[in-house]
TrEMBL record:
It comes from the Bacteria. This is Alpha-L-rhamnosidase-like protein. The lineage of its organism: Bacteria, Bacillati, Actinomycetota, Actinomycetes, Propionibacteriales.
Length: 813
């Protein structure tokens, strides 16, 4: 906790905590010391806080095989260089995802329960147990009276000496044979030398093998004292619903035998729903005990935090996060329930002040199409979801002397200094640093709780059906989308809660709890809900009536405006973000301090205007608001006298000027300098250079983009960023609305030279870069198919570079 004065004082120059970081992809491994140093220095110069190293597939000839002494020495060199530069350095504990590799044999590999169904007659049968695939292990066999699919009950049949002994019986009958089978899933996107099976996340022995063979060498190479954390990406172990020893674990945890009733995972019976709930719950606990706790405790032994994206398959609960040190999510959408909300709710409930998110994962695909405004806009979607530490996805390691644009990751933005708009990156990252740091102060105010229907989600997962073993995804589907949207659009916030979280959440602190109608709740949970009501709270089951029960929000809600309310020792503050393409105006009943992340201005006001994708920080105050009357203005359009220079080639032009309209510039990525002269009779007034609001973009204009690929819905008047100079004085950088720069301090009476340096994206060059496709084909031929470059054929879609409007001088008192 902190005071308002503390936060106000540090907001302009916050401490390093909260600086955006980047996931740093090392391809191959094909890494050199000099390039490691150059890229880390570029990160530090841009104001980034550090790098999280991820080891992935090759993009060129391998120079140091994964796990080799040469490779580990480079990891250590990178860690030491990062420390020298004041950067945080994190390491992913494996190559690709999920954890695994050549050290994972069938005894440690992820497994799936496989069923063989056979209809038989009345005769007795002796059926040899045959391993259909290497690593197959017989589990049990059952027989039921009736034709295939008809028996309502089955009994286990004996097996000995490699033979299943099916006794004689009625006719017809069905036999079910359960086999534990290695899923066969290979670790995805691996570096050379890291290939192999995905490990069993329910097995402590498997976790220990991976620690010995992969994780510990990486940690020791980086040096524990130099590590910010060690990292595990999202859980993507598909179909892994079995592990040796689960019969013993089930009876120990649930109090009854699973083996006699195992068939109920496949067949509906009177008690099969509860058995599936108990089975799913057991898998979640095994994941916590034998994977999460094992890695956390091992890392803690070296004094290093363990950070994880704990959702997916195996079925991690929201409260599973409590067994890690640092909680991370991904996915944007502040009115929905993305994985970031899964993580931020757990952090609030279990007392973690920092919540990170993998951000910009698919931003404006393909690589190099993302603009600084895209990055700002998506960050503003994450902050209202409870995130306060951004891990950018990401920075591709790429040799400086390589052909074309170099190397990119197959499905993400390339957010590094190859982007022509990189001169704006420092100001962008500084503003995001301010907001991230600020949102780590105090505690969140979230008056509404939404119960996660975990029992219903477990029950929905049935062997042989398409429903994934992904508790987060199934539970999200079971919660009506209208519930989080109604809460957020009302200007309020919420936490998700689950059965385990109730152990740390006082019923008296739950003002309003949403439990979807028909949701199954364990007896302990029902008692807790009753205690909420007894303490004066409300439990709502009819989501259609939720709006009638929501408390009054502290700020009047506005469309597209996300609100974060945090409490300090002696007051509150509010982060507000306009997440849409239209201007929104907020009016308040009391005066508020208005802080901007992009400037040092602090004003007291009763009304603020949020431009598209703009944010602000608001602090209630007793200071009277300033006069809201708009000053008189004189506007002069700078229509004539413009020239543009690409390099030394200067020529006169007429505005607007779009590079893609010139066939010679359609594939040009870089900068251009626009010049004109301004005659100013005096400089006693405030002088603003205004470029206008930009043009709206139809949401479906780039229909190839997946739903999780973020992009803003305006075409900026400056494509895509610009630096403004008046009389050789730098007046500011532009990449986001409002597209205005204050020229007052640089202006002088008489003739003034205005220079606008416009930077576009590298997508224009990408559209003509055949090297990337050739490199992908070459490494596929050499190392096997490990990736596909996604959406690269759309690199030239809807590009707008240049000075796309006629700037105006606004003179006001």
């Amino acid at each position: 906790m902190a005071t308002v004065d503390d936060v106000r004082r540090q907001f302009r120059n916050p401490p390093p905590e909260g600086r955006p970081m980047m996931r740093w992809w090392w391809f191959g491994p094909s890494i050199e010391r000099d390039e490691i140093d150059r890229e880390l220095e570029a990160m530090a110069a841009a104001g980034l806080g550090g790098a999280e190293v991820a080891f992935v597939y090759p993009m060129g000839p391998v120079t140091a095989q994964f796990g080799s002494p040469e490779f580990l020495e480079l990891v250590g060199h990178a860690a030491r260089t990062a420390r020298r530069l004041g950067l945080r350095f994190d390491v992913t504990l494996g190559s690709g995802w999920s954890y695994g590799g050549a050290h994972v044999g069938p005894e440690y590999a992820a497994r799936q329960l496989h069923w063989d169904r056979r209809e038989i007659g009345a005769a007795a049968y002796d059926v040899p147990i045959v391993a259909g695939w290497p690593g197959d292990e017989f589990v049990a066999a059952y027989v039921g009276d009736g034709p295939a699919g008809a028996p309502s009950s089955y009994v286990e049949v004996p097996a000995s000496d490699g033979i299943i002994h099916v006794p004689a019986g009625g006719q017809p009958r069905e036999v079910l044979i359960a086999t534990s089978r290695v899923t066969g899933q290979q670790v995805k996107r691996t570096a050379v030398g890291a290939e192999g099976l995905t490990l069993d996340h329910y097995s402590a022995a498997a976790a220990q093998v991976h620690i010995r063979q992969v994780a510990e060498p990486l940690l020791l190479a980086a040096t524990p004292e130099l590590l910010g954390s060690v990292f595990c990406d999202s859980l993507e172990v598909y179909g892994g619903d079995w592990t040796p020893g689960i019969f013993d674990e089930f009876v120990k945890r649930r109090g009854y035998e699973l083996r006699p009733r195992l068939f109920e995972l496949l067949v509906d019976t009177e008690g099969s729903r509860q058995l599936r709930i108990d089975f799913g719950r057991t898998l979640s606990e095994l994941y916590e005990d034998n994977f999460l706790k094992v890695f956390q405790q091992w890392a803690a032994g070296y004094g290093v935090p363990f950070r994880i994206q704990s959702y997916g398959e195996p079925p991690a609960t929201m409260s599973s996060y409590r067994h890690a040190d640092l909680f991370e999510g991904e996915g944007w959408g502040w009115t929905r329930i993305p994985e970031t909300r899964w993580a931020s709710s757990a952090a609030n409930l279990y007392g973690r002040s920092v919540v990170s998110a993998e951000v910009w994962t698919w931003v404006h695909s393909p690589s190099f199409r993302a603009t600084p405004l895209d990055l700002q806009g998506e960050a503003h979607e994450h902050f209202p979801s409870g995130v306060n530490q951004l891990i950018g996805h990401g920075w591709p390691y790429s040799p400086t002397d390589g052909p074309g644009l170099g190397w990119i990751f197959y499905a993400a933005g390339a957010l590094d200094d190859r982007n022509p708009w990189w001169p704006s990156a420092t100001a962008l990252f500084r503003s995001l640093h301010r907001l991230s740091w600020l949102l780590q102060q105090g505690t969140p105010v979230r008056p509404v709780k939404i119960y996660i229907p975990a029992s219903d989600a477990y029950a929905a997962v049935r062997t042989g059906h398409a429903e994934p073993l992904n508790l987060y995804r199934v539970a999200r589907r079971l919660i009506p989308e209208s519930a989080p949207r109604m809460i957020r659009e009302a200007g309020l916030d919420f936490d998700l809660i689950d059965d385990d979280a109730l152990e740390v959440l006082d019923p008296a602190d739950a003002q309003l709890v949403v439990v979807t109608e028909g949701t199954a709740t364990p007896p302990e949970t029902q008692r807790w809900l009753d205690a909420v009501v007894a303490a004066g709270g409300k439990v709502i089951t009819d989501v259609s009536t939720l709006a009638d029960h929501l408390p009054r929000p502290p700020l009047t809600p506005q469309q597209d405006v996300g609100v974060v309310h945090r409490r300090l020792d002696d007051g509150d503050f509010y982060f507000v973000a306009n997440t849409g393409p239209e201007i929104r105006t907020l009016t308040f009943d009391q005066p508020l301090e208005h802080w901007r992340a992009l400037s040092d201005d602090i004003a007291v006001t009763g009304t603020i205007t949020l431009h598209p994708y703009e944010s602000a920080v608001l602090i209630p105050t007793t200071t009277p608001a300033a006069d809201a009357a708009a000053p008189a203005q004189q506007v002069h359009a700078l229509q004539t006298g413009w020239s543009v220079a690409f390099g030394n080639d200067s020529r006169p032009i007429t505005l607007p000027h779009r590079w893609e309209d010139d066939p010679a510039l359609t594939t040009y990525s870089g900068s251009a300098t626009y010049r004109t002269e301004i005659e100013l009779p005096d400089t006693t007034d405030c002088l603003l250079l205004d470029f206008g609001p930009g043009e709206p973009v139809a949401p479906d204009s780039e229909s190839y983009l997946p739903s999780n690929s973020y992009r803003v819905l305006i075409t900026p008047p400056v494509g895509v960023a610009a630096d403004i100079w008046l009389n050789d004085t730098h007046c500011g950088s532009l990449w986001a609305p409002p597209y205005q720069v204050d020229l007052t301090a640089a202006a002088r009476p008489g003739v003034n030279e205005l220079r606008i340096v416009v930077h576009n994206t590298a997508a224009n060059a990408l559209s003509a870069d055949h090297h990337l496709l050739e490199a992908a084909a070459d490494v596929t031929a050499r190392y096997g198919r490990r990736f596909d470059l996604q959406h690269i054929e759309h690199a030239a879609n809807y590009l707008n570079s240049g000075l796309l409007t006629v700037p105006r001088i606004i003179r006001q008192a």
